[in-house]
Amino acid sequence: MTRKFDVVVLGAGAAGMMCAIRAGGRGRSVLVIDHARAPGEKIRISGGGRCNFTNIHAGAKNFLSANPHFAKSALARYTPRDFLDMVEAHGIAWHEKTLGQLFCDESARDIIRMLLSEMKAANVVLELQKQVTTVEKTLDGFRIGTSDGPVEALSLVIATGGKSIPKMGATGFAYDIARQFGLKIVETRPALVPLTLDPNLLEKLSPLSGIGVPAEIRHGRTAFREALLFTHRGLSGPSILQISSYWREGDEITLAIEPDLDIAAALKTGRKANGRQAAQTVLAEILPKRLAQFFVESRGITGHLADLSDKAIDSLAGSIQNWTVRPAGSEGYRTAEVTLGGVDTSELDSKTMQAKAVPGLYFIGECVDVTGWLGGYNFQWAWASGYVCGESL
Ligand SMILES: Cc1cc2nc3c(=O)[nH]c(=O)nc-3n(C[C@H](O)[C@H](O)[C@H](O)COP(=O)(O)OP(=O)(O)OC[C@H]3O[C@@H](n4cnc5c(N)ncnc54)[C@H](O)[C@@H]3O)c2cc1C
User: Fold this and answer.
1) The 3-state secondary structure of 110-128, one letter per residue
2) Distance from residue 172's CA to the centre of ligand 1 (Å)
3) Could you say which of 3.40.50.150, 3.50.50.60, 3.30.70.1890, 3.30.300.180 is the CATH number of the domain covering 3-189+340-392?
C-alpha cells in the first residue's frame, strides 16, 4: 500500500529537521527519510562535539554563492536570535566563543535532542536506515520509491546535504535529483578544507608540524585573521579553512604570521638593545621556537643581529609576514566541512526554496549553492532555509 503525506523530506540533517518541525507545526503531515542510522550526524560531530550552532553576526556577506543576494531573504526571516530562542526554551546552556560563534556548553547532542523533541511535538514521522530508490513527479505531487515501499507526497523537500565526508553518508543525491528535473548545478568543490603542499615544500615545513600561530591569510582581496596550523600534510587551522573556500588550483595565498605585531620593529629594537644576540633569539620571544629557527635558517642568517642591515631585517620580517605559498591542492571531500556550489539559486525561489520550474519540489541546506564561512554560518543557513521552506509548505 502506498502511504501518503503532505510533505516528504529527504535527509534528517539540520535543514531537513528544521523544515519538518515548521511544516509539522503548521499542521502538515510530514515524513522525514534518511539512509543513516541516526539523525543529525553532522550536528553530533560539529564544533568539536559542542556544535557551533549559529553566529550572531550572520548575514549574506558571510556566504559564498553565484548570487550573493539569494540568501538574504531566508536569513532575515529566520535569524540567529530565532534559533537561540529555541535553544533557550529547551534549557540548553550556551556560550559565545569568539567572533560571534555560539556553542553548546555541554554537547552537540543537546541540539539533536532538541530537534527530535520539536519534531515529535509537531507529529513528524522519522524513518531511518531507509534507501530512496526513485523519485517521480505525479499529477499532484511526487512518488518516492524506498527500500520498504513507495510513498506519495504533495511536496518533496531535498535536504540531503553536500558531498563532504562520504564516510558519514554524504552523497551527491540532491544534485542527481536536481539534474533529473533539469535544474542547473553550480560546480561543486570541497570547501572549509585543509590545503596540501607539494612534497618539496612539505619536506621543508615538516619540522613545523603541530605549530599553531595567529595569522592573516590572504587570497586576492579576501583575508581571514584567525589561527594557522602547520600539519604533516600541509596547512590547516581556521584561517586556512576559511581561505580554502576562495582558493583555486594554481593560486597563491599570502601568509602573515602574527599580523598584529611589527616583527621588523621588534628585530630592530632587539638589535639596538643588544646587537650581539642572534635574530633567532629575538624572534623566539615572539614566535614558537621552531618557527623562529625555520625562518632564520631558510634565509641563511647566522651571526649577530648587529650584522644585519635594516634591509636584511625587513626582508626577514617580510618572509614571515608576507609569505607567499602556492598550495598543491586540498584534502578533498574526505575532510572538507562543507561543499561549495550546488543547486543553482537561479532555479529556486529565495522566499520558499521551491524550484521555479517544478512546483512542489524544494531544495534546502548545504545542497543549495550557498556556502557559509567557518563559524556557525552553515548551520544558520540550514536552519533559515529549512524554516522558510517549512513555512511555505
Ligand atoms: C566535521 C564537521 C564539523 C562542522 N562543524 C560545523 C559547525 O560547528 N558549525 C556550522 O555552522 N557548520 C558546521 N559544519 C557544517 C554543517 O555540518 C553543515 O553545513 C550542515 O550539517 C548542513 O546541513 P544539511 O541539513 O544541509 O545537511 P546534512 O547535515 O549533511 O544532512 C543531510 C542528511 O541527508 C542524509 N542523506 C544524504 N544522502 C542521502 C540519501 N541518498 N538518502 C537518504 N538520506 C541521505 C544524510 O545521512 C544526512 O543525515 C561542520 C561540518 C563538518 C563535516
Assistant:
1) HHHHHHHHHHHHCCCEEEC
2) 12
3) 3.50.50.60
pLDDT-derived band at 303 (thresholds 50, 70, 90) equals confident
* pTM of the predicted structure, to 2 decimals: 0.97
Q: What is the pLDDT of residue 1?
A: 81
Task: Return the pLDDT at 128.
Answer: 98
List where CATH 3.50.50.60 sits in the chain.
3-189+340-392
Rounded to the nearest angstrom, the distance between the alpha carbon of 337 and the centre of ligand 1 is 9
| Percent of the chain's residues with pLDDT above 90 | 98
Ligand 1 pocket residues where CB is under 6 Å? 10-16, 34-36, 41-42, 45-47, 51-52, 132, 159-161, 164-165, 169, 171, 173, 337-338, 365-366, 376-379, 382
Topology annotation, domain 195-330: Elongation Factor Tu (Ef-tu); domain 3 (2.40.30)
Kindly give, in sequence order, each residue whose CB lies less than 8 Å from that of residue 7, ignoring residues fewer than 6 positions away.
Answer: 20, 23, 28, 29, 30, 31, 153, 154, 155, 156, 157, 393
Instruction: Scan for cell 591542492, then name that residue.
Output: 329
pLDDT digits (tens, 9 = 90+) for 34-66: 999 999 999 999 999 999 999 999 999 999 999
